[in-house]
Design brief:
Elements (H helix, E strand, L loop, with lengths): L1 H7 L4 E3 L5 E2 L4 H12 L15 E2 H12 L6 E3 L14 H7 L7 H17 L19 H14 L1
Amino acid sequence: IFCERFLSGATAVIFGDGEQTRDYVFVEDVARANVAALGKAVCGVFNIGTGVETSVNQLYRMLSEVSGIRRAPSFAPARQGEQRRSAISSARAAVALDWHPQVDLCEGLQRTFQYYLSQERRGELAGARTSGLSSSLGESSSAGKRRLRSRSRSR
C-alpha cells in the first residue's frame, strides 16, 4: 500500500506510533517454501518468515530510500487489537523443507517498488486498493511521478 501511495503522490498513514513490528518475507520466498513442501513427504504447519522484526516506521524509511521519494507519513490512532510485535521462527521449514529465506528486506522492497512502478507506467494501478490510507501531499502527484521516472531512466 505504501508503494501505491508513493506513486500516486498521496501521504501514507501509519496507524499508532509505527513501532509495531512485523516479520516481512518476500513473496518469492513464500512461493519457494510452497514448492519445497510439494516435493517432500511431510505434513503439518510450517511458519515461513525471516525471524527478523521490522517496525512499520523502519519499513517506511526503507521504502522511502528505495523509491527516492521523501515524504513524511501521517499518523492515525492505533487500530484496536493490533498486535504489537511479530517475528516468526521458520526453524521447522529449515529442517524439514531445507528452506531458508533468500531475499532480504531491502532487496524485496526494491523489487516490489519496481513492480509497482512498472504497473503504474502501464496504467494498471488505477482502482488499486488503498484501504487504511488517506491522501494529501506536499508536492503535486505529476511532479513526483516525473521526478521518479527521470530517476528510473538514469539508472
